[in-house]
Amino acid sequence: MSRRVAAALLAMAVSVLPACGRAPAETRLRQQVEAMQDAVSQRDPRGFMQGVAADFQGNGGMDRDALHNLLRVQVLANASIGVVSGPLDVQVSGDTARVRFQAALTGGSGRFVPDRAQAYEIDSGWREEDGEWRVYYAKWEAKL
Q: Of 115, 122, 124, 51, which Cα lies nearest the Cα of 86?
């Protein structure tokens, strides 16, 4: 009887193991995008930059350092920063992905109504580095 119980417990343990594995690539990518958006809203440029690849390229040849400086300036200029994004269009292909979405960014003194707002259409390229998704290129276009 104890062998049957042991065999049943072993079978249950083996069946549960796949559920304990890593989340699917798309899920982890969506979580990374959300974490980066949260970092902006929390006025945390360093947290945002954890998701940016060392060789990042953006609009007008913007590199990683220039992006970091842009975020710092926005944090200094705005007591409150808001990010609201639309649905993400995620296309994963192996260890690279493309994410397209629209986002509205707000900034201001922190009072009830933001002083500034701008909507953007964003197209970004991502790759998995050491098990983490990082953006290596982004293009954005103002929509308002």
A: 122
- For 41-84, write each residue's pLDDT tens digit: 999 999 999 999 999 999 999 999 999 999 999 999 999 999 99
Residue 131 DSSP SS3: coil
- Gap between the Cα atoms of 19 and 141, Å rounded: 40
Contacts of 93 (CB under 8 A, 6+ apart): none
How many helices, marked H, and strands, marked E, lie in the chain?
4, 6
* Dihedrals phi, psi of 82, to nearest 5 degrees: -125, 145
| Cα separation, 73 vs 75, whole angstroms | 5
